[in-house]
Amino acid sequence: MDVLLIAGLWLDGSAWAGVASTLRSRGHRPVPLTLPGQGDGSSSATLDDQLAAVLTAVDEASDKAMVVGHSAACTLAWLAADARPDKISKVVLVGGFPAADGKPYADFFELRGGVMPFPGWGPFEGPDSVDLDEEARRAFAAAAIPVPEGVATGIVRLTDERRFEVPVVVICPGFTPAQAKEWINAGDVPELAKVKNLDFVDIDSGHWPMHTKPAELARLLAELS
């Protein structure tokens, strides 16, 4: 099966190297995506540009693809399900939730010079980064790719109710399935509240399991495919 891998903010497709290697060994075809503006040297990319790249990968898949979104890119994965509900077998959300229609994509941190740089580790202290040692933190920060303003502030547009028929699995790093269900039941994640086939899987890691638990994350993805 084709498994499209979309990393979150400040990351390019290389973030999935360990996951992709294990998926290949299990007979899958991983497709780690490097999105416009996050690895190609451009700072003028927009959310629409990134979605177009994801949809191209969906359309080029040999059969229905499983689309994996990490963190903020959970919204990109969900936008793909909205645009191609008949071409996606499952959406897997790793450590994040899709934004609702009309909301900004990821305007979480300060914009400087037309981009949103990595803000440092302060906002991620605690469960998110507990399994990253100092060397890993330095490497992450040094490699972090500033997110173009046109991506971070892009407005999410969802139009096709058939997206709720696409099965969704939430992989929970840094929080538990019980917490995720509580947030959804409280109305904090309105999109997932309407999904007809929604499951949850726990993983004992911080926010970036593709870095700290790549083999385990790949095993979970293989089992879900």
UniProtKB/TrEMBL annotation:
Signal peptide: none annotated. SUPFAM superfamilies: alpha/beta-Hydrolases. InterPro entries: AB_hydrolase_1, AB_hydrolase_fold, Carboxylesterase_BioH. One of its GO terms (molecular function) is hydrolase activity. Residues 3-219 form the AB hydrolase-1 domain. The keyword Hydrolase applies. Pfam families: Abhydrolase_6 (PF12697). Keywords: Hydrolase. This is Alpha/beta hydrolase. It comes from Lentzea roselyniae. The lineage of its organism: Bacteria, Bacillati, Actinomycetota, Actinomycetes, Pseudonocardiales.
